[in-house]
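not sure who needs this but someone in the group chat was asking about Arm DNA-binding domain-containing protein from Microbulbifer okhotskensis so here u go. i didnt clean anything up, its just raw.
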Amino acid sequence: MALTDTQIKQAKPSDKDQWLTDGQGLRLLIKPTGSKYWRLKAPVSSLRK
């Protein structure tokens, strides 16, 4: 499910870290202070040995 602008604006901080996700690797971290941080989980396709 995609995150909507309304969901992001209505998200309120709680006493612990809170995550909102779109299901495709994009996540929004909401800290207890009210700060919001975007995180993207992307796979690493190749690693050097």
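also The first helix runs from residue 5 to 10. if thats useful
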